[in-house]
Amino acid sequence: MRNILISGASIAGTATAYWLRRHGFDVTVVERAPAIREGGYKVDIRGAALRVVERMGLMDAIRAASTDMRVATHYDARGRKVATMDADLFGGRTGDDVEIMRGDLNELLYDLTRHDVEYVFGDSITDIADDGTVTFERSAPRRFDLVVGADGAHSVTRRIAFGEESRYARDLGYYISICTVPNTLGLDREEAVHAAPGRTANVYSTRQDTRAKACFMWSSEPLAYDHRDTEAQKDLLIKAMEGTGWEVPALLASVRDAEDFYFDSVTQIHMDRWSKGRVVLVGDAGYCASPASGQGTSLALVGAYVLAGELATGGGTEGYERELRAFVEANQALGPANVKGMVIASRAALWFQLRMIKLLPHLPGRDRMIDKVAGPIHRAANAIVLKDYAGSSLPTLSSDE
Questions:
Q1: Rg (CA), the chain
Q2: Can you give the residue ranges of the FAD-binding domain (predicted)?
Q3: Nearest partner of 177 among 108, 270, 241, 114, judged by Cα
């Protein structure tokens, strides 16, 4: 096995390309978008994923590009401050954990690979034959020894090889929408949050960014909509958040002009196997933990490292699944619990949460309270012992990377 195709130039795709190339494989990446996707939302790198990026030599660059968030402030419907907490605690970060914009991380990964990996932008897979022949929307058919699906929770690769998404998707009962908005609140490395029963709005601005990101989450029964109809999705968001106070009406007005609008259900992907024939899945395509877990990026980075290492050392896809399964299950378990703390169901529960945030700095059991928030994420993020696959590395990457 030498010639590998990766579907999707996501975090999972570019990281897998890096490690496969390090182990001597010939790698092609096909990506539907016309270029590496910029922007996006902020993501966390924790636990075992930190050790992966250290082995890639990226840690200094990642820390230099970190969001540098300082504080998160909760506001009531009339715009009054009701509680403030440290941004790292708000994000469940401890120790060396680092937060970075998704687009910045993907650019760093792409820069590591673009001289040694073939990237085909503006195209996508349409079929995969048993002999490894892959057909594309635009390019001529080509044969590969293995196809890696790294094309996200709505993976086309997974649908081709394993069947319809509905067989594997587990809806948690919430929706999320994120887009860029004007920074009318003058935020500087701050998060501004307003929560109402069943609905939460969060606006933040990171280091060296004059704009802001607005993130909305709400509980809902399954919604029927076209994944390609952005305007209809905006209508659903506005309807869901209708009647919410604070700055939400102004934010929703800005949503209409957003060019980077993201909308999706908070859904996990659960599969008994991540490989079939000549196809294997990595990252959200195989084991999406949902944004509520806070661990999607770390799962992608660790999954890429383990997959490439097992393929290089003879463990194959069976070794990949054996090494990674418990880690994935521990991190997926975070999602259902976390989302209930992100979108509060009742006014009484919301009052209690804000009261505890306000009192936290003064409580005698402060450390225990912090561990209750960040501890489960920290333990899940470290729930794997990474093998050292360095001995199987063959070529080095280009010196001008």
A1: 21
A2: 4-314
A3: 241
Query: What mean pLDDT is predicted for residues 97-114?
Result: 96
Could you tell me the two tokens for 78? Answer: 């009339």
Under a CB-based contact definition with an 8 Å cutoff, are residues 318 and 297 in contact? Answer: no
Tally the C-alpha atoms within 13 A of residue 360's C-alpha that lie toward its C-beta. 20
- At 214, list the tokens: 């607005």
Residue 190, strand partner residues: 71, 205
How far is residue 374's CA from residue 219's CA, in Å, rounded to a whole number? 23
In whole angstroms, what is the distance from residue 265 CA to residue 281 CA?
A: 21
Element (H, E) at 157: helix 156-162
If you search the block for the tokens 């069947």, which residue do you land on? Answer: 163
What's the CA dihedral at 381, 386, 392, 395 to 10 degrees?
30
Q: What single DSSP character describes residue 320?
A: H
CA dihedral defined by 43, 125, 317, 386, rounded to 10 degrees? -20
Tell me the domain boundaries of the chain: 3-339+377-390
Secondary structure of 209-260 in the HEC alphabet?
A: CCCEEEEEEEECCCCCCCCCCHHHHHHHHHHHHCCCCCCHHHHHHHHCCCCC
**DSSP assignments along 18-83, one per residue:** HHHHHTT-EEEEEESSSS------EEEE-THHHHHHHHTT-HHHHHHTB----EEEEE-TTS-EEE
pLDDT in tens, 20-69: 999 999 999 999 999 998 878 999 999 999 999 999 999 999 999 999 99
CATH class of 3-339+377-390: alpha beta
- Fill in the DSSP letter of residue 189: S
DSSP 371: H
Tell me: pLDDT of 230 over 80: yes
How far apart are the C-alpha atoms of 299 and 384, rounded to whole Å?
Answer: 11
- Give dist(CA 117, CA 120) in Å, integer: 10
How far from 123 is each of 10, 30, 116, 207, 214, CA to CA, in Å? 14, 6, 20, 34, 30
Contact 99, 67 (CB under 8 A): yes
Q: Per-residue pLDDT averaged across 366-385, rounded? A: 81
Place of tokens 């590998």: 4
The string of pLDDT tens digits covering residues 138-174 is: 999 999 999 999 999 999 999 999 999 999 999 999 9
